[in-house]
Specification:
alpha/beta; TIM Barrel; two-stranded antiparallel ribbon
Length: about 350
């Protein structure tokens, strides 16, 4: 049987990928992830009649824009995404070395807290080695978010908490599996998949899920923007070393594409950090350790402080749209309105 067209697109980039080595400790982690994907490809779900294979073989008839809508366009108040995980990579050159956040964290309880804090969405990890979570947690999170929606709400309704699948994604099969579990978006870490980023972004488009592209350096940001990424996450934590580079996101703010929605993350735990990054131009923040694994009172205080921050006027442009469809030219249509 012919190779699914999405897999074929990635196959054509194999030569470029072979010439790229992820930096630092990330290289070993990516090698381990390739072995995991190889094992995943042999599961029954990836047979020719399996859901993962079929999801890759045909373009989706619908698309989700839940994350983009949750962030909004140049809104005056910031948004916060919860980063749900039980551990984080420790770096230090040791593959599999992690820092524990909350080994007993219950994903559904964490999402209930995120909803209580008025989070715009949640990143939910599905990697056991680096984050202590699995695809079972991702599926439970998507099911929980859908169950909490008002009766009759569509899957892409803005009242449904959007779930972003967080994994070290290097292959379209991972995106297909995340979509089958119910994720509305996936995280693509540029440092791990730089040569394959265009193909993976195309995969997201064809599968109808959004892509949040994580970058840490100006070069990664340049590649992401040239590939057409519209949702950018600048992580102050260097994936190559595991070290936190304080001020990295603020320093990269002038380089952010003006037509992208941009988040900042990595070690953000104080209101002064939020204030600095907000003034630098970021639309929102991804908070993990600051919300989970510590004192719940501290998390409550931080979230309260964030939403009590004075609103900032953002640069925006009015656009014109037709109030209803018409066969006449828009400029001659009396329903044409300025927004």
């Amino acid at each position: 049987m012919a190779m699914p067209f999405i897999l074929l697109a990635l196959h054509l980039t194999a030569f470029a990928a072979a010439a790229y080595t992820p930096p630092g400790v990330l290289a070993s982690i990516v090698d381990a992830k390739r072995a995991e994907v190889e094992r995943m490809s042999k599961l029954p779900e990836n047979r020719e009649d399996g859901p993962w294979f079929l999801r890759l073989a045909y373009p989706s008839s619908s698309a989700s824009y839940a994350v983009g809508r949750a962030i909004g366009w140049k809104r005056e108040a910031p948004v916060v995404f919860a980063d749900v995980k039980r551990a984080s990579p420790a770096g230090k050159g040791n593959i599999g070395s992690t820092v524990s956040i909350d080994p007993r964290l219950d994903v559904e309880s964490a999402l209930a807290d995120a909803a209580k804090w008025n989070c715009a969405g949640a990143f939910v990890a599905s990697d056991i080695e680096s984050y202590g979570c699995s695809y079972r947690d991702l599926k439970a999170a998507c099911t929980f978010a859908r169950a909490r929606a008002p009766p009759g709400a569509a899957d892409d309704d803005e009242r449904v908490l959007p779930i972003v699948a967080k994994d070290l994604i290097i292959d379209p099969l991972q995106i297909s599996r995340a979509a089958c579990e119910g994720a509305k978006a996936v995280l693509l870490i540029a440092a791990a998949c730089l040569p394959d980023l265009p193909a993976l972004l195309d995969t997201c488009t064809l599968l109808g899920v959004e892509a949040v592209v994580e970058v840490h350096t100006p070069d990664e940001l340049t590649v992401a923007s040239e590939c057409g990424a519209s949702l950018i996450l600048v992580n102050e934590r260097d994936r190559a070393t595991g070290e936190l580079v304080v001020g990295q996101a603020a320093a990269m703010a002038p380089l952010l594409p003006p037509d992208c929605q941009c988040l900042a993350g990595g070690g953000i735990s104080r209101i002064d950090q939020v204030r600095t990054l907000r003034r630098a131009g970021y639309d929102g923040f991804v908070l993990g350790r600051a919300l989970f694994g510590g004192d719940p009172n501290d998390a409550d205080a931080l979230m309260t402080a964030i939403f009590e921050e004075p609103k900032l006027q953002r640069v925006s442009e009015p656009i014109s749209v037709p109030k209803r469809s018409s066969s006449k030219r828009y400029e001659d249509d009396p329903t044409w309105e300025k927004l």
